[in-house]
Specification:
The protein is built from 8 helices and 5 strands, in the order E-H-E-H-H-H-E-H-E-H-H-E-H. It is α/β, with parallel strands linked by helices and about 160 residues long. The structure holds shikimate-3-phosphate.
């Protein structure tokens, strides 16, 4: 798939930010992390945004940040786990770039995502599993599914081959 913008989607802990940075180095493209942009725009952390303004407010900022990145070219966008779960965000991303789903089984996610308060939706393991299951259908709408349990350099090679580099 030829594209000048790659969106990395998938659940929390799937490795989106790590893969985005490695891919950015290989392609010489800019890397943008939606969570980081939200925090710098809001000048507070994601847990603080959730606790002070609630999830709907966070989702509105997330959508605005995503929309602000749409005109950019030669860019890799590392999304938050919920970004592609929203139907409007999903159509916008599918229409403006190559969307790759970094897929990892729930057991691996749990091992990687600490309940340390940095991810407000990861505090309760059974709720996290429900959220994981409820998002699979959305993630499966990505242009490609990549097995994210493989080493990062293999994931990057797979992505490069897929976009024709
Ligand atoms: C969220 C995932 C987080 C962050 C926020 C909400 C989600 O991003 O956007 O805590 O709804 O899955 P990561 O996937 O980068 O952890």
């Amino acid at each position: 798939m030829k594209a000048d913008k790659i969106y990395l989607v998938g659940f929390m802990g799937a490795g989106k930010s790590t893969v985005a940075r490695a891919l950015g180095r290989r392609l010489g493209w800019k890397v943008e992390d939606i969570d980081e942009r939200i925090e710098s725009l809001e000048k507070r952390t994601i847990p603080t945004i959730f606790s002070q303004n609630g999830e709907p407010y966070f989702r509105a900022v997330e959508r605005a940040v995503l929309n602000s990145l749409i005109p950019a070219h030669n860019i890799i966008v590392s999304t938050g786990g919920g970004t592609f779960a929203d139907a409007d965000n999903r159509s916008a991303m599918l229409a403006t770039g190559a969307v790759a789903w970094l897929d990892l089984p729930f057991e691996r996610i749990v091992a990687r995502v600490p309940a340390d308060g940095r991810r407000p939706l990861a505090q309760d393991r059974s709720r996290l599993e429900l959220l994981f299951n409820s998002r699979q259908a959305a993630y499966s709408e990505a242009h490609v599914r990549i097995d994210a349990s493989r080493p990062v350099d293999e994931v990057v090679e797979h992505l490069l081959a897929w976009i024709g580099y």
